[in-house]
## 1
Amino acid sequence: MPESNRIRLASRLSRVSPSKTFAVAALASELRARGVDVIDFGPGEPDFGTPLAIRVAAKRAIDAGYTRYTNVPGCDELRDAIVRKYADKYGLALTKRNVVAGTGGKQELFNVAFCILDPGDEVVIPAPYWVSFPDQVVLAGGEPVFVQTTIEDRFRPTAALIESGFSSRTRAVILNSPCNPSGAVVQEAELRKIVELCASRGALLIYDETYEFFVYDGQRHASVMSWFDEYPSSMVAIGSLSKSFAMTGWRLGYAVGHPDLIAAMSNLQSHSTSNPSSISQMAGVAALQGDPADVRTMYEAYVERRKWLVPALNEIPGLECAVPDGAFYVFPRVKSLFGKRGIRDSQDVATYLLEAAAVAVVPGSAFGQDDYVRLSYATSLESIKEGVRRMREAIEALG
Ligand SMILES: Cc1ncc(COP(=O)(O)O)c(C=O)c1O
């Protein structure tokens, strides 16, 4: 191609790659288009529809003409609803100045990185991590520093592990609990230590609680916001309506934190997307104030699927699966398959399962741990059972 026909991209783009979770989804849909019946454990999105009351609120917003720009950080009703949520859960007396709503939790995470990182600043990220954390840090000019959690510890990060990633250039830590992909939940006492570590070392703890409602076995979701009054400049919480209320397509998330950080994020957002969709915001108010029974129904389905899935995976020779504390993912170790029929890594395992069993999983390399694959159980129990049967057959055929 002649040089004049090439697009010259900024060098920062050369350090990031498209989200690998979307890549597997694309491959699976390609197979489906060819008529293959694919069991898809790939998607990180609920298989439920958005609850009726939320959809009704959105339709009402349209009919009432609520279709114009709102304040950049979100309308008063939505931010008030978020303030109330944190008041009810953690006894906090926040104001709207502590809250910015945006086009998904993903955008707010991106905005935090852009607002706090200078070139060369380091961000400690426990692995396995959600795919976008490191790329967002890199796009913002920072350097991700990974610390590895282990299956033996059920992937739960500790303050000591996080501290081992600290240097004089550490500016932030990104913690995600419940974790995508491992399902690990940081325990309250440990979280307190991590908050204290960040506060004492001048690092911002970016706490992604996207999966906060999905915590199992009688455990409780712990939030950094429990200690916000003590350490307001050491933390920011990121929330999303995508998973809790099956609203992935509505694109609504938020950040809660120090007013100065929130003001900077709103400023940045005013030059990129402005406010999140006005209609989604009204739907979000209905979600946050709605009947908890809707979330409960989804929760119970995940409980049932997880109860069946984890032992079933552990029965497949060569797979090892820790019991995940939360979210809707399992992260089995598949290392024992390496070396069989030319399989070298988790990408090869995913490709083999897709080709031999028409089962889509996401390679662990996307999340910074190559010995594993991720399966989402946000799909029907019937599909889960069929998918595991096929996986078992394909893996046994490897010998
Ligand atoms: C850990 C985690 N954080 C944030 C997000 C972003 O969610 P959204 O942008 O849909 O609010 C996701 C979505 O998959 C996620 O898994």
## 2
Amino acid sequence: MSTSTAPFDAIVVGARCAGASTAMLLARRGHRVLLVDRSRFPSDLRLSTHLVWQPGVARLERWGLREQVARSGCPPIVEGTVDFGDFVLTGRVPPAGDVEEAYAPRRRVLDTILVEAAVRAGVELWDGCTVDGLLTDGDERGEPRVTGITGRTGGRTRVTASAPVVIGADGMRSVVARLVDAPAYLERPALNGTWFSYWSGLGLPHSTLYVRPYRTVAANPTNDGLTVVGLNCPVDEFRRHRSDVGGFVTRTVEECAPELADRLRSGTREERWSGAAVPSFFRRPSGPGWALVGDAGYVKDPCTAQGITDAFSSAELLAEAVDDALRGRRGWGEALSGYQRRRDEAAMPMYEFTYAQSSLEPPPPEMRELLASLAGDPDAASGFFGVFAGTVPVQALFGAPEPASSAA
Ligand SMILES: Cc1cc2nc3c(=O)[nH]c(=O)nc-3n(C[C@H](O)[C@H](O)[C@H](O)COP(=O)(O)OP(=O)(O)OC[C@H]3O[C@@H](n4cnc5c(N)ncnc54)[C@H](O)[C@@H]3O)c2cc1C
């Protein structure tokens, strides 16, 4: 790898579900794209329990990549159980188009499939390269216009590259967002934290979620015959138990889900504990010469498992906007402000719903009654599952969210 002199049409920083997808989609539209990541692929992402709901899988299908996920040995998830203690809902998520299954592929599997698809589409990949600065030129709307990146490789070689747009797909602590000082809006603190690890030998037939006041425990099958098991609890407890995660999770699962605790005892934990507490916020996702996609531009609590699916959908919206601007069909300002509008409109109901769920408060009595009435009726329960999966609008079951204010 060396300093590039020929300009690219777009530079994407971060090569996982948001960045590799955006780069691939732009390259498939005929653009010359540089994709940069400090990781080397295949590479795992420790902080994700990686459930991809049906709308996310439908995008993989549209991009020709669903079959590769299925062939990776990751079991399809077609049925689920949500156990509320005194009643249990069992059912299937209503499909997204003809996609009936979700998957929880390990990130080293999913992200590598995406990176390889990007490279096949003609993207130039600089992995093992950390971006540490932006090139700028002139001034637009009181902001310097971004024209490229600076970075360093593992061997400390300095590199630079230039393009009319630099896309930050570098996660919630985005360096690109920090360097352009992207304003945040609708910011909210983390209300819960997640501890999770991977077990062999659990023999769980399908995806399972236990919901108790101020706790949820989730188990999903993933690659290599493993099951990812995660516990959500209020953020102060999450922090308090850092020094004894194993003991805390074991005690809590025994209280909330004794039959899962039995399975955990007879299985084997194969990996160390990982954990995170995630705040919620949007960032203004564009300015002169730059744009943000995925967690770099919009983050919410992982309790509804929407991050990967949202990264895919934002990648499609941004690739369309950047393609329009590069081909002169729309000016950059119009194309990228349209991207922000479409992203926020699509995201807002789930953003509010997710934040409400992230408190882990027990549902109010009338909601509990409604949910209990779905037990024993898999068709009715599937509407409830569909809200979490994103195949049934939040409003259909829970009413319209409070109107959002203060977009930057
Ligand atoms: C505990 C937890 C559980 C979760 N569970 C789920 C789930 O079940 N389902 C779901 O859909 N979502 C889940 N999420 C959310 C999901 O992980 C994120 O939404 C998703 O990873 C965002 O993808 P991204 O491509 O935007 O960013 P990331 O996946 O964070 O990727 C960013 C990339 O940018 C690279 N990078 C960063 N800085 C630089 C730099 N300076 N130079 C070069 N490269 C850089 C990084 O190396 C990384 O590869 C979970 C999150 C957490 C914390």
